[in-house]
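Incident review: delayed structure delivery

Summary: a single-chain prediction request sat in the queue longer than the usual turnaround. Root cause was a stuck worker, restarted by the on-call engineer. No data loss occurred. The affected request and its eventual output are reproduced below so the record is complete for anyone auditing the incident later.

Affected input:
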Amino acid sequence: MKENILDVLLFLFEHLLDADAERMGDGETLRSHALLAELAEAGFSHAEIHKAFDWLDALARQRPAVAHARANGPVRIYGGDELERLDVEARGFLMFLEQHGVIDASQRELVLDRALALEQDAIDLDDLKWVVLMALFGQPGSEAAYAWMQTQVSEDEPEPVH
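Output delivered after worker restart:
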């Protein structure tokens, strides 16, 4: 069995949500019996499935209404659990995204909250890229950032932002 919230989220995102954006915002559609059965058949435990849905619900509640990405925003100082769980590369990537206007400070905080909510001991760059992509998914004003992030989840080096 797969026992990771991120694995469930990635399965949902890659196989279902990316093809049907409306399913992301509708918690009842997401929790349909057919979808629950499909996730269980894929090898996910019921506990992890429900944790993943709770994670998505929290993302929807916390998501800013409109993105206001700007460079040179406030500098984020990481502490405690963030330093222990987010590696240097992941923290640097968040700074890169913010400095290049891909995300703003409120989106950064949303990404940090959702990354730490994954219940993983360590969050590396690849995991963080997926969290950023999910945070940008369907957010008004973030279409270009979302499209750019789609290319980043499959590449090793960030592409320049124009």
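Verification: The longest helix spans residues 46-62.
Action items: add queue-age alerting; document worker restart procedure.
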